[in-house]
């Protein structure tokens, strides 16, 4: 089942969706696949203005457009996808925010891009499926780095010893940056099981972490290349 944001679903001028292991790109958006810009995500903070379908964006982790009919997307497998829309659907954005992007300020970069022509107060943001605080274990040094560099409360950043809550950090940042509303769609990419037991896949999402653990035990197990899920959004043509 595709995950949708209630906030974004309420905007008639756009379509969006968060993919998963059985439908990497939500079926309702497949039709627009050929318009996707070409890009290489590098856990950076560069935001690109997309002006035409299939635009060559180079290395980039954030995308912004006011053009109808161009699908914006980011690919994730545990990292945090955030998609954005102006309340009237006249402009949209998408961001790939892993821990590095959150720390280095990709959400701030997107807010700055929006603020160039507009006010984030006219925008809403939806946080998609990502590694949750239930499973996202990191080393103590990384938690300390977050707690030193970000203004968010230490318990919000790391609600459990050696675990990060990427979605809570993003939500707090987006609120502080002045977005009108923020919601969440989907659940933890590492542990969420498929709701439908008839599905061949045991887990709902592609997870880089789960796959790496599996491959450590069984080197024959295939890697996730080409199987990351899309978070995608388009202004209706
Ligand atoms: Zn989990």
Notes on the protein architecture:
The protein has helices spanning 6-9, 99-104, 106-117, 140-149, 154-157, 166-176, 208-217; strands at residues 14-18, 38-40, 47-49, 56-59, 62-65, 72-76, 80-86, 92-97, 123-127, 181-184, 229-235. The strands form three sheets. Strands 3-5-8-7-9-10 form a six-stranded mixed sheet. By secondary structure, the chain is an alpha/beta fold. It is globular. The chain has a single domain, classed as 4-Layer Sandwich (CNF1/YfiH-like putative cysteine hydrolases). It binds zinc ion (ZN). The site of zinc ion has 6 residues, from loops.
What order do the helices and strands come in, and which of them pair?
Elements: H1 6-9, E1 14-18, E2 38-40, E3 47-49, E4 56-59, E5 62-65, E6 72-76, E7 80-86, E8 92-97, H2 99-104, H3 106-117, E9 123-127, H4 140-149, H5 154-157, H6 166-176, E10 181-184, H7 208-217, E11 229-235
Parallel strand pairs: 2-4, 3-5, 9-10
Antiparallel strand pairs: 1-11, 5-8, 6-11, 7-8, 7-9
The structure holds zinc ion.
């Amino acid at each position: 089942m595709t995950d949708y944001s209630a906030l974004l679903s309420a905007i008639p001028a756009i379509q969006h969706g968060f993919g998963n292991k059985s439908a990497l790109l939500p079926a309702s958006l497949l039709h627009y696949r050929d318009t996707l810009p070409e890009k290489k995500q590098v856990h950076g903070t560069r935001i690109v203005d997309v002006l035409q379908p299939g635009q060559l964006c180079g290395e980039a982790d954030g995308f912004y457009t006011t053009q109808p009919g161009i699908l914006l997307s980011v690919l994730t497998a545990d990292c945090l996808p955030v998609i954005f829309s102006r309340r009237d659907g006249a402009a949209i954005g998408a961001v790939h925010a892993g821990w590095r992007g959150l720390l280095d300020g990709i959400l701030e970069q997107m807010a700055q891009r929006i603020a160039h022509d507009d006010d984030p107060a006219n925008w809403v943001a939806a946080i998609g499926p990502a590694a949750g605080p239930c499973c996202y274990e990191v080393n103590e040094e990384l938690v300390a780095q977050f707690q030193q560099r970000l203004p968010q409360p230490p318990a919000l950043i790391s609600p459990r010893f050696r675990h990060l809550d990427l979605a809570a950090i993003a939500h707090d940042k987006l609120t502080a940056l002045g977005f009108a509303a923020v919601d969440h769609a989907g659940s933890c990419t590492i542990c969420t099981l498929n709701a439908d037991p008839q599905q061949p896949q045991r887990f709902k999402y592609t997870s880089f972490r789960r796959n790496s653990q599996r491959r450590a035990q069984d080197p024959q197990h295939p890697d996730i290349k080409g199987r990351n899920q899309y978070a995608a959004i388009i202004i209706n043509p």
